[in-house]
Amino acid sequence: MSYSFRSDAADGLEFSTSELTGALGDSVTVLPLLVALAATTSVSLPHVFVGFGVFQIVWGLYYGMPLSVEPMKALVGLAIVGSLSYPELAAAGLLAGAVLLTVGQFGLVGRLQRVVGEPVVRGIQFAVALLLLEAAVGLAADAPVVAVGGFAVVGAVVVAGYRQTSVLVVLGIGAGAAVATAGVPTLQVPELAAFPAGTPAFSGAAVEGTVAQLGMTIGNAAIATALLCGDLYDRDVSADALSKSMGVTCLAAVPFGGIPMCHGSGGLAGKYAFGARTGGANVLLGLGYLALALVAAGAMLSAFPMALLGVLLVVVAFELGRAAFAPVSDRRSLALVVGVGVLGLTINVGVAFAVGAAAFVLLERVD
């Protein structure tokens, strides 16, 4: 049974079981990256969770829909593999925020959207779906027995007619296993301080990382997400508005220990796949992140069976891939979607976006 409460203060804001499961559908794309980042850098995980909690709530209320708030994956990935230190990651986040706020303010993202063409944007969505699937396989491979068990649980819940609640069941099992392994964490309020994990370092590596991230962010987090807002929620949200809100997020969160954050089509598809339809999902997830900030001990999160998150990523990847191909009607567009997607998987989403845009322009001229 679902109990919901509609707020008079925000149009369409709802709190229900489906909003809760949808909120957790976004978290499965976030938690593995944050755990890995905390294990490999000096980042303060409690401060990171505060940033995610605050801006989930802010943008859920502002847009009135379950907009995703995710880590900037290219930058976070570079930090995880050691190409960026945390101070360089912080610097890159500030640079990216300034650029996104500026180009959004002057309407440059919207102009780029009209030039690029829809098949290229669909290809970016497909690329993200493939990357999520690749991440899911990697997580599952570390503990195949756990992953198989997770898929069995999801299958049983779906067969029983409760597909949306499968995320709650799997995450509940994982949390129980983590507590059994690491014990119950003690509550601790994160300290309010400027750059608590290190002062930004504006190095060459930080600049290079910013450039690599911006191609992915503009393609996936701005343009593709704007398109998906219309596909899934019938909402007209401009890519320039998303660019500005991402810029504000980075510039406001990084100085207080947060990491570079963006919107994303993967997280938005994840929320939709698990039932979120209003900004209430963001409020619920934001409160959940703020609660995690109080108990974000490294041992607790490290003990969570990541293979179970891999199981849920498969569901998210399927939803995003289906959205990418649903409106494609001709062979040329299909080839461009597949080509951009595969290039994004094998090389880089930013490179795939640039190559796809060039190919689209050339094909338009041929016609």
Automatic annotation (TrEMBL):
Has keyword Transmembrane?
A: yes
Task: Give the coiled coil ranges.
Answer: none
Keywords per UniProt: Membrane, Transmembrane, Transmembrane helix
GO MF term (any one): molybdate ion transmembrane transporter activity
Q: Which residues cross the membrane?
A: 20-41, 48-69, 89-108, 120-139, 145-162, 167-187, 289-321, 333-363
Q: Which Pfam families match?
A: MFS_MOT1 (PF16983)
InterPro entries assigned to the protein according to its UniProt record, in alphabetical order: MOT1/MOT2
UniProt KW Transmembrane keyword: yes
Output this protein's name.
Answer: Molybdate transporter of MFS superfamily protein
Q: Which organism is it from?
A: Natronobacterium haloterrestre
